[in-house]
Amino acid sequence: MYETFAHTADLGLRIRAPSLDSLFAEAGEALMSIILDDPTTIEPREAWQVQIEGDDLAYLLVDWLNALLYRFDVGHRVYRRFQVQVTPGGLSASAWGEPLDPARHRLQREVKAITYHGLRVEPTEAGWLAEVIVDI
Fold first, then answer.
1. Measured distance CA(88)–CA(110) in Å, rounded
2. Average pLDDT over residues 41-61
3. Is the confidence at residue 5, as pLDDT, over 90?
4. At 120, which CATH number?
5. Crossing angle of the two packed helices 57-75 and 20-35, in degrees rounded to 10
6. Residue 92 CB: number of other CB atoms within 10 A?
7. Number of helices and strands (H, E) in the chain?
8. Burial track 66-76 (b if 16+ CB lie within 10 A, e otherwise)
9. I need a surface site. Which of 38, 71, 97, 105 has the fewest CB within 10 A?
10. What is the pLDDT of residues 89-131, one digit of tens each?
11. Range of the domain at 123
């Protein structure tokens, strides 16, 4: 589950999930939901695999979201389904999506960057919580 919250001229994402792997997958969905008006229009036609090294969970989350944002900005790719495995040394992820199609994928807002401001990833009684601010 994810939600957005206002943060000055930026936008915050608050993500909750029962496991660390699902937290990172939900974060990918959350990012696509603020970029596109309706992320359900994305068809999971092709898979993209990525591995990111790192042992700090908060920085790993930023690196993960930045990788997705880069794929959107440079490769014009949008994703709908995510599978992530977080390990002590980083993460391995698959994302399924397709090329951006302006006829079907209406852009909601431009995300300029994922920031470190207010960044947190922490365990809770119900699972995991992450907060990240995106520069829009």
1. 32
2. 97
3. no
4. 3.55.10.10
5. 40
6. 15
7. 2, 8
8. ebbbebbeeee
9. 38
10. 999 999 999 999 999 999 999 999 999 998 999 999 999 999 9
11. 2-135
